[in-house]
Design goal:
The complex is a heterodimer of chains A (about 240) and B (about 325). Chain A contains 9 helices and 10 strands. Chain A is α/β, with parallel strands linked by helices. The radius of gyration of chain A is 18 Å and the shape is globular. Helices cover about 75% and strands about 5% of the residues of chain B. Classes of the chains: A alpha/beta (about 240), B mainly alpha (about 325). The interface between A and B is medium-sized, with 25 and 17 residues.
Chain lengths: ~240, ~325
């Protein structure tokens, strides 16, 4: 494993009683980079994220994070190692205020002595300073997505697994989310793996793209390479201009 | 957010302090037992309100505390000491609760099954109290001598009179409330509320939720056991029915009526509803349970946060004005 590789998976396979959701995936993710995973529904994108976060255990293969094999570690231990996940549907604490949400996250980091300061900094980053005392159930869908990203920052995770961050967002919110993610990588040393369907958003992120199809690695490359790939167009981007 | 919360315990405890000064006789004798029911209700509110864990086993810990305290006094006069007996009971309540809950929470048992497990604990405790009759007195119950608080041979507090015992129980109730309130407002309380709201998110943020739930249930068991010990000491008697499912259900009713999100609400619920039960049973022996049932149903339908919820809403409204 090279020094700048944060996460490496080898022959990663997940079999659900005969249905192969991920098959022999071999991938490397460098530190301080954004990687986007795309592919049609059922391609195994969320399964892949779940295998990394520990919500699922692989049938075969290895997952190496910071030079340590983490296959058998549970969700809690992986979170403590710095792997945090944003779910497809925003998963926040609906009956708590935005600030209370963030405090819960920061309380489990090694920055809990600066609770207020860290919470305020994250609130600024996710543009929810004005909503500090708002119950998170009263936030817009997009704001809840940001708050959930804020929770990952609160626990000071290094590897952020973000499942469909722009789902249900307005164009303005999508653009702001793109800026936020780029900022996290550039200024806060985060490594981000995103599952996304919005090709314009992916282009804006200027990230490495991984295409999954029927659980297998189909293609990898930059936005230009992927959008010119005839096979990818056939299986996924067919209708895109 | 609600500054009044910091000091809202003062009126209720001041009011209770004046009872023995204003009244004499039966009320001064019986009220401490209702106050202990209030403490038992707080023990449930601590886990039900904060972590969303409903337990039908609080009566079990109450009985464990009562029987243990009574048996210590009866069979181990060398530790016939109020403080030591109380400490042993607190420890035992914690250990039993932790052992019971550890395996359930570690195995990922969800709320409904946990309720059933705690229900089984109550039944088990009641059965033990009945079948081990050489120790417990079986259905006849166990008589417990009233003991004084001593340091060596010096009597620190004479508990033969009702007034002294009243103030002792009130004082311990206040301390218990302050400790639970402190826990609620610190990390463990926040984490428990996070678990109540979204346990999967807490796990994904690296919280070992089973640990926090187990500790919280342990604290709750300690408080219930201490209340049971003081009840046995005060009533000079404890019987198997105090461990049973019926009594466990009553505790849930007190907390639901008082307000499960508020320790003080639950405390008041325990006192008021048990007093009301007693009062109604004397004026209408046939129908008192029916009246109580109606109060419970009305509360659940119209005031789901209980009496405390009504006060909280009024406070919020006044603040907005």
């Amino acid at each position: 494993m090279k020094e700048n590789t944060l996460l490496e998976v080898s022959n990663l396979t997940k079999n659900f009683e005969g249905f192969v959701a991920n098959e022999d995936l071999n991938l490397k993710f460098k530190k301080n980079e954004i990687s986007c995973i795309i592919g049609p529904n059922g391609a195994g994108k969320t399964t892949f994220i779940s295998l990394i976060s520990g919500h699922l255990q692989p049938t075969k293969g290895t997952i190496i994070y910071k030079n340590k094999k983490i296959n058998n570690l549970d969700v809690v231990t992986r979170a403590k190692l710095g792997i945090a996940r944003k779910f497809q549907t925003p998963s926040v604490f609906s009956n708590l205020t935005v600030l209370e949400n963030l405090e819960l996250a920061v309380l489990n980091s090694n920055k809990q002595e600066n609770l207020k300061e860290v919470s305020d900094r994250i609130l600024n980053l996710i543009q929810l300073s004005q909503e500090k005392y708002t119950l998170s159930q009263n936030l817009s869908h997009g704001q809840r997505q940001w708050l959930e990203i804020g929770l990952l920052l609160g626990i000071d995770a290094e590897l952020l697994l973000i499942d469909e961050p722009t789902s249900g967002m307005t164009d303005f919110e999508t653009a702001a989310t793109s800026r936020l993610i780029k900022d996290l990588v550039k200024n806060y040393n985060k490594t981000v793996i995103i599952i996304e369907h919005d090709i314009a958003f992916i282009k804006d992120l200027n990230s490495n793209i991984i295409v999954l199809h029927l659980g297998k690695l189909f293609a990898t490359g930059s936005y230009e390479e992927i959008t010119k790939n005839k096979n990818v167009k056939d299986i996924y981007l067919g209708n895109e201009k | 957010m609600f500054k009044y919360k910091k000091f809202n315990f003062i009126p209720i405890f001041v009011l209770l302090t004046f009872i023995p000064i204003i009244f004499k006789g039966y009320i001064v004798f019986i009220l401490p037992q209702y106050i202990l029911f209030g403490v038992l209700a707080m023990s449930l509110a601590f886990i039900w309100g904060n972590a969303g864990i409903l337990s039908f086993g609080q009566a079990s810990f109450f009985a464990i505390g009562g029987y243990t305290f009574g048996l210590l006094i009866k069979f181990f006069p060398v530790i016939n000491h109020f403080f030591l007996g109380s400490l042993i009971v607190i420890f035992l309540g914690f250990v039993v609760a932790v052992i019971t809950s550890y395996f359930l929470f570690s195995a990922g048992v969800k709320a409904t099954y946990f309720v059933l497990a705690t229900l089984a604990l109550s039944i088990l405790t009641e059965q033990l109290a009945v079948t081990k009759s050489t120790l417990t007195g079986g259905w006849n119950g166990l008589f417990v001598d009233r003991i004084n608080i001593k340091v060596g041979d010096f009597t620190l507090l004479d508990l033969s009179g009702d007034v002294n015992f009243f103030y002792l129980i009130l004082f311990i109730s206040l301390i218990t409330y302050l400790i639970l309130n402190y826990l609620e407002n610190n990390k463990i309380g926040k984490v428990l509320r996070g678990i109540r709201e979204n346990e999967n998110r807490m796990l994904a943020m690296g919280y070992k939720t089973s640990f926090y739930k187990t500790v919280a249930f342990g604290v709750s068991g300690s408080v219930a056991a201490l209340a049971g010990a003081l009840y046995a000491a005060h009533a000079s008697f404890i019987s198997p029915s105090i461990a049973g499912v019926l009594f466990s259900t009553e505790v849930v009713v007190w907390v639901a009526i008082g307000g499960r999100y508020s320790l003080l609400g639950a405390f008041a619920g325990g006192i008021i509803v048990s007093f009301l039960s007693n009062y109604l049973s004397t004026i209408t022996p046939q129908y008192w349970q029916l009246f109580l049932g109606i109060i419970f149903i009305v509360t659940i339908i119209f005031f789901k946060d209980g009496l405390a919820g009504i006060f909280k809403k009024r406070y919020e409204r006044n603040n907005i004005k």
